[in-house]
Design brief:
The structure is a homotetramer. By secondary structure, chain A is α+β, with helices and mostly antiparallel strands. The first copy, chain A, has 4 helices and 5 strands; from the N terminus they run βααβαββαβ. The first copy, chain A, folds into 2 domains: 36 residues; 80 residues, 2-Layer Sandwich (Alpha-Beta Plaits), CATH 3.30.70.
């Protein structure tokens, strides 16, 4: 556990009141915890701007599992980069559609390239990428 | 399988050239497929603007697994909404940090509320929410 | 000027060091100022989620000024909502393209609708909307 | 005016129906125009990922015009980069707050740096950056 420091922050009373209202709505019971979280979020945004940063990501793919050989192509893509794909979760959405969530680790640029390749496969209807920095 | 229609689109030659360059870079082998994908993405954005829309989502949480009772609190939150949580994947990032990816189904507003509750738990360092529409 | 309050925040030493590094890079000379800014940004995001919130916005439109009657149509749209459009700035980008930045005040939903109408006009190539809350 | 090409796109009937519904809501009277717009938007996103790309941008600043010397500092920042700042529009929001919209041209990275410097000035409460590519 890292050493804890205590710093003082000056805020207009009105701003503080609005912030306390927001964090109560979000479920925070502690103001420091909320401020730490928005600081980490801001740091993470900055960290991920660098395509060379290390990161972990989830790619969400919605696809029609009747698409010919799509599952094979997805598996092949994942196995061509065995160091990066940590885990895959597959969910049946309805008769046609699946959601596949693929957790990957690597550099931001590599993750974006791999997510692009997966999304562009025929049969993949929607692809979303969510990256978080690992140096948090 | 739904009926396929064929529509004609007029584009400036230069715009078409730029688009063909982009989709080749992204890995598409077929222009129709790429146009379908950006149409679906645009529809999905619009669909998710409505807090009552049905959606599926992945919440990514980075947390310190030494945090007292955090795992218990996360499990309790998930079990208090048993219909929504489809699957959870847990990944060890390093000695301190875990990534948990929680797949949920429900209305956009409910998903956002649940993601907020999870993110605001003490010990959760980063929370990200990625929602996709299910009517794709 | 509103009353100033001083609150204490506990942070891990390492997190504080990373934050100090970021805000120095961004040009801040004062940590409280940086924390106030990210708090305001977070509040603003929440405020703008409500389509009924009051806001001020800039719409950026890139268009070909040779497009028949486009300038007239844009002007007409703006005059059909005289209370909302505060100011318009027009910039020549190159022989064909102009940038028009339209500053509007009103409710989030009204602003979004108006921005959509402008962007969908024939000849408008790109439209971007940037909304900020006015209760800051 | 660039040459117009006509390409055929295959879409599921249901997807086409949903898209026609969306673009009618957005105010489009022509399907090609709507598809051109989402193609340009997608190209623009890709273009702006490269920090060396040429772009035009609007920075929105909300600030308290009672802040000591803030207007001077903002002007000085703008004059230190005379080639980039195209135009500035100033709007009074209420007794305390102003909105300033600053239109700049340059490379993506330079624009981001300048926007960061402006936002971090003491007295600037909110800063937003909206970049569009100029090769549209």
């Amino acid at each position: 556990m890292s050493t804890i420091e205590r710093v003082g922050v000056s805020l207009e009373k009105e701003l503080l009141g609005q912030f306390d209202g927001l964090i109560e709505k979000l479920g925070y019971t502690n103001r420091s915890e909320a401020i730490r979280d928005i600081i980490r979020e801001r740091l993470s945004q900055d960290h991920l701007k660098n395509p060379q940063s290390r990161a972990v990501a989830a790619v969400l793919l919605v696809y029609d599992h009747h698409s010919t050989q799509l599952a094979d192509k997805l598996l092949k893509l994942q196995h061509d980069c065995p160091l990066q794909v940590v885990a895959t979760t597959h969910v049946h959405l309805d008769h046609h559609n699946c959601l596949e969530v693929i957790i990957m680790r690597g550099k931001v640029r590599e993750i974006e390239t791999m997510a692009g390749k997966m999304t562009s496969l025929r049969g993949v209807k929607l692809g979303r990428l969510n990256i978080v920095g690992t140096d948090v």
